[in-house]
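User: Predict the full complex structure for these chains.
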Amino acid sequence: MQKSIEHTALYHIMNPEHIAMFGASNRFAAMGTNLLSSIKALGFKGDIYPVHPKEVQVMGLKTYASVMDLPVVPDLAFIVLPTNLVPEILEACGKKGIKHAIIVSGGFKEVGGDGIALEKKICDIADKYSMRFVGPNCIGVVNPHHRFNATYFPYQQASGFIGMASQSGSFVTQMFDYLSNFGLGYSAGISVGNEANIDLVDCLEYLGACPNTKVISLYIETIRRGREFIDMARSIVPHKPIVAYYVGGSEAGKKATFSHTGALSGPDKLYDGIFRQSGVIRAQSIEEMFDFCLCLGMCPKPEGNRVIIQTHSGGPGAVAADVCCREGLKLNPISQNTRKKLAPYVPHTGSTNNPIDITYSKNPMDYYVSIPKVLMEDEDSDAVLIYFLMPDHSVQRAMEGFGITGEKAVEQTGVFIDDQSKTVADLLKGFSKPFIGFSFYTRENRFIKNLQDKGVAILPSPVRAAKAMSAMVQYVNLREKITRGGKKAA
Amino acid sequence: MQVKNKSVIGESHHALSEYRSKKLLAEYYIPVTEELLVRHPADAVSAAEKIGYPVAMKACSPELMHKTEAGCIELGITSDDGVLLAYKRIKSSVTVELEGILVQEMVPGIRELIAGLNREPQFGPCVMLGIGGVMTEIINDTVFRVAPFDLVEAMDMMRELRSQAMLSGFRGQLPVDLETVCRCLVALGDIGLEHPEISEIDINPLKVNQDGRVKAVDALVVFSPENRI
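Assistant: Here is the predicted structure of the two-chain assembly.
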């Protein structure tokens, strides 16, 4: 089942060397022009050949009147043209020997009527020339690692490890900025559009083989090749987690009625079963999907469901504990041995029950280093959740308490926070146990930003952190089930 | 005596009767109730004696789908006279042509599951497992898998039920024979793959007796419209 990435249908679409660009001109409002601008903006290293019947030069690039005139056979045709022009251009690309295309243009099956026949026509042309294409009616693709952004939106974020295939273009492009709020980015983003040729199953195949993708995310409204989806997912899950956010019901699901139980067999429940059988973790929202991706991509996987929570504030710890229990995670009492090791760090007001509530730290680094180290070493637990709180101003106030004032205090605060976050991140690297931090502070806060940038998973609330921990346990269980049962479900 | 309602569907032979439905399930090693199909009152009595009292009696016809039409099922019959009376009442309660009257063992136990097969155009045959009984719609606890799947996956279906605690022992009921339930689920999927003419199967209930064994007490096999006889 697993092909090498070079042999997947999407390889040349995601990693092109030479692009024939259709639809870019010197009219700056044109969609094609904007897309060419996006490609150039991210610093694409390959060659771009605009094809236009009238233009001589577009954005400083030599422009060709026909695809037949191009000096090379490009590995990708990027088509952003009025609907009625698409078939003849695709045919010309086929004749030229181009094997891959992205068709952004809409007006096909999604509009019904003549659009259906037109879509059939482009599918037939693609088959005739053994071409594979993404779209039509899509927003494009992005591969930041290849400096290739073929979408309307600028990609200004870092390259990341999340590989996304989406039946909504918006959930590819409009997430660029959202992901950067967590220091995340895409390894690949594919807007599948009408899936006339390349569909979610092809995307899974590519993302499963993609070395930059540590975790796969899917936005799904319908699965067109059901059995193939299940088999492909099961072949990937043993080495890479897949998270999906599914919305709506399939056309088929709406009709599904078990005669005794018509009311019981909603498509939603059917999809619950399908995802579980596929080994895919189902998220309940887009935000949750990326929370799960963040932790699955950054943390080692837990060996079981026993969690220890560390806090110095009662409320956030209690919330984390409550959600852990609802999610089926276990909060066992802390072992005698670990309690003994914790004793020097916990003041008399604190508690070494689970959650471990320190209340206050005698030494600030007890909370962030000494105690987490003891918990990570604890042999009777599988995962650690810690409440993170280090506001710049309180560090600065402490500095001032030591007599450091003015600009010196600001500078020293920064140095202190940088040092501490490095110490925390370095400590965690030594363990193969998952650790998720939770905080109501965001990347505006230097400590949180530093930790995230150094690979520490931190989510913006105890609820989200506990749910993500549960998703990681779920992944391990699904992986174990599939490995035991065989990659093919049969 | 309990009376269960059944409805009459006019369209002819788009389904198998309960008796023939269970014969098909039994070929796939799905445990079904011990039962005999009879056409005369005297045969009903000897069937009941052979199976052992108490027995259930049901009108049997491919045209009798689930629900409504009072009187075509009688449960908990304990004597020869009861059999004769039930035979007469069932006969007079239905107007459709019958394959016969089904005389069937009563399966004691308080736990009921439902299991079934349906087709989803994008996934093919899908198998369903749920908590059965009179409150099945209220409890609304069902899980699905796409055929084919293995016993590991079938076991995972049971873990996915919210009311999975019902499958362990409680109140004098022994734990459910999970392996047999798993085999039933895998078998339903296999039937779906090997019989494209079948659009739907319902086992309702798949009853669990006190010692944890399961048996299909009622079953229905429906054909897809293009395959109706």
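The first helix of chain B runs from residue 18 to 27.
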